[in-house]
Amino acid sequence: MLDQILLGTQVILQPANLLFCFIGAVIGTIVGVLPGIGPLGALSILLPATFRMTPVESIVMFAGVYYGAMYGGSTTSILLNIPGETASIVTCIDGYRLARKGRAGPALGISAMGSFIGGTVAILLTMALAIPIINVALKFSAPEYFSLMVLGIVLLTFLSSKSMTKSLIVAVFGIFLGTIGTDPVEGLTRFTFRTSTLLDGLNVVPVAMGLFGIGELLTNIERGMSVDVFEAKIGRVLPSLQDWAESKWAIVRGTLLGFLLGVVPGGGSILASFVSYAVEKKVSKHPERFGRGAIEGVAGPETANNAGAQASFIPLLTFGIPSNVVTAILLSAFMIHGLTPGPLLLKQNPDVFWGLIMSMYVGNIMLLVLNLPLIGIWVKVLKIPYVILFPIIILFCLIGAYSVNNDVNDILILIIFGLIGYLMKKFDYDAAILVLAIVLGPMIEKALRQALIMYRGSFSVFVHRPISLGLLLMALALMLYPVIAKRKDFSLAGKGSSEGV
Amino acid sequence: MNRPEQVSGLVWLLVGISITAYTLFSLRIGSLREPGPGFFPLVAGIALTCLSSLQLLKTALKKGMEKRTLAELWHGSDWRKVCYITAALVMCFVVFKPAGFLLTTACLVIFLLAVIGGKTWKYAIGVAVLMSACSYALFYYLLQVELPMGILGF
User: Fold this and answer.
1) Taking CB atoms and an 8 Å cutoff, what residues of chain A touch B86?
2) What's the complex ipTM?
3) pTM above 0.80?
4) Chain segment B33-51, per-residue pLDDT in tens
5) What is the per-residue pLDDT across A64-113, written as a single tens digit (0 to 9) for each?
6) H helical segments located in A34-141
7) Is A184 helix (H, G, I), strand (E, B) or coil?
8) Nearest chain B Cα distance for residue A217, angstroms
9) B89–A214 CB contact, under 8 Å
10) Considering CB atoms only, which of B33, B101, B116 is closest to A456?
């Protein structure tokens, strides 16, 4: 392990890699601070720009953008009551209240320090668990991969805030969209409508930018986004001893929750922050303080979202399976550079693997400095009016979509998915599931067909292999849980009414 | 009756049926022992059809469901701006290669600032020229991204 840490340290301390780690952290903080564009949009735009970088430089920069956005997102939430990105939504609740009480500084401080602690512990756990998980992953073949990815999709639909049926509809549609292109086994084209653009399938960059960039923007423009004119005074950013006393257990719980939910496919930073807030409110001796400026309501979620962001790399690095939309873009970044994340990445490219892990330490230190003493810079960035910001977002989306393949048809895909994203929001469907399903769909199909070919068309392969069976049973349990829970509610309601008579 | 849920369920049902029908008529399904290129899309099409039927059934049978109309989804919102932005983006797609990056993006930003953002034309033109030039410098020169030159030749 020590050799590997030294290798990673040697890799990240190279000036070029350090520079790109810093650039990633800065870009991540900016996109986290600015509402209307998040790490997904930034990564999609940056993806084509990494063609000329080395694999380590691009992966390290991308990772920096992702967890940097977790740090930056709290700034807008606390100062303006507008979440800079989705994982910072709950921070608005108590963070803004603290700012209104003149305590914006300590709120920002505890948020940055909690993120640092959560991120650092999550990296330590990643280092400790990576090799054992890889050893398990090496035992996986096509049936196990199929079952794991099915579980991932089902888990994502289960954890979605929308109805299970609607989430499954979106997942299945995404899996279908993943079949567009060339059949991986026979090489025949499917649903390409004779266009060369679709021969390699739908590119995830214009799809993701359409759904989350353009779709989100159309929704905001329609609503007429206005910014609260209250100008928070920041003052000292160091939390007091009292703040630390109130937040310490929230930070511990946030770290553990964030890590566990980040590792789970379909989990990640967004879910971690929501669950952390709910837990803190539940365990608090004074839950009435929440919503009125409880500092643990900021500390817990912000710690959890960064721990979740760090942990979400584990499924990608060990199994090669992205656990959320952002790591799905990271998967594309790996593949552009000819790397295949998964159990063989550690063996074939240890410099990339350990360089990435060690870059997370360095990145977290950089972000602590960027988000504490240099917070004044980001406050100025916040003053950019949305009327200037939204044309910049559209411009970047257009360039990002076009530059992936220098194909103007990708702009059309961007527009189509922008409209789909806008309508999905209107009709209350979860767009994140769609993107992940588009990425996982081809992988699921390949695993399914390989398994069926290997075992002569017998579906029993999925139940005869114990790991595969276990994973499928978990997926089934998750699908049945809402039905059973509903029936329980009905029978309890029935019992209650009959006892009342 | 929740009209948005009904409409969305119906749309998904049509999509599922279309996928299933298209796959059956134009792709080889194969067998379980040797799945063909149409196997997986067919499974997805059938699953989508079944799930959307379930969604429609739930909408029809659920008691106490909130009554909503389609118009309520757009009530009080500035949906015209959404239409204008979409139309502007489609125009960009059409003229991007022939007109080139600089001209297309400058015109787009002028439109967005003046018509959507409500700024004066002078302001819009000034900011648009600056934005297009800066993004050209950033993406074309710094990040080495290939952008179409169009009629301006640069």
Assistant:
1) 218, 415, 418-419
2) 0.93
3) yes
4) 788 899 999 999 999 999 9
5) 998 888 888 888 888 877 776 777 778 888 888 888 888 888 898 899 89
6) 39-46, 55-80, 89-100, 104-137
7) coil
8) 9
9) yes
10) B33
